[in-house]
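So, is this right?
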Amino acid sequence: MKKRGPIIGVSGLVLVAISISIMVSVLPANMTDRNSLYIPSMFEGMFNQVSDKITIFPGESGYFSYGTKSSNIPLLWGVQIIDFQEGDNLSISISNIFGDKYGNFSQDNSIIFEMLDIVKSDSLNFEIQNHGSRTVNLVVMISEDPDNSDAFTNPNSPLRNTIVPLVISAILLIFGIIILIVGIIMYLIDWKNIQNNRKNY
């Protein structure tokens, strides 16, 4: 029986195994625990500022302020509930010192990221209200002009050292799965041809 199908299939499995090993080496060992995914650590160097841990009791609000350093840039902000549980619910209101509103946002997942357009240097005030039934701990993350961040342009940045291997791993995984499927299909075709040849004899 021809062995091209199994050989190709095994090659695909090898690529999948390499992909998984790269993922395991880059991501935290306790990746399955979503509360262990501390975004500021995973994407170190990406943010201009990360708040200290903010604790907000049910029905109360927490506050965070940030003064932008540039103008006419996009600003990426995010909030991560460090100890997220189902049922957690936050509302986030962003304004400046003059009371001008940048928007109101709702969060019922562990992480939220949004973009703001900063026309001129400003002081942003974040009011975060806890609408859930339990106390939550969270951090606020700010990145000015993230597309031009040193985290992406510096080849030695921790972020690039994380993202690049993950991209390579994803590409290997896709190719591995495709090659594995091709190997299985070729094996089935060869097996069917052999069965047909036996019937002819």
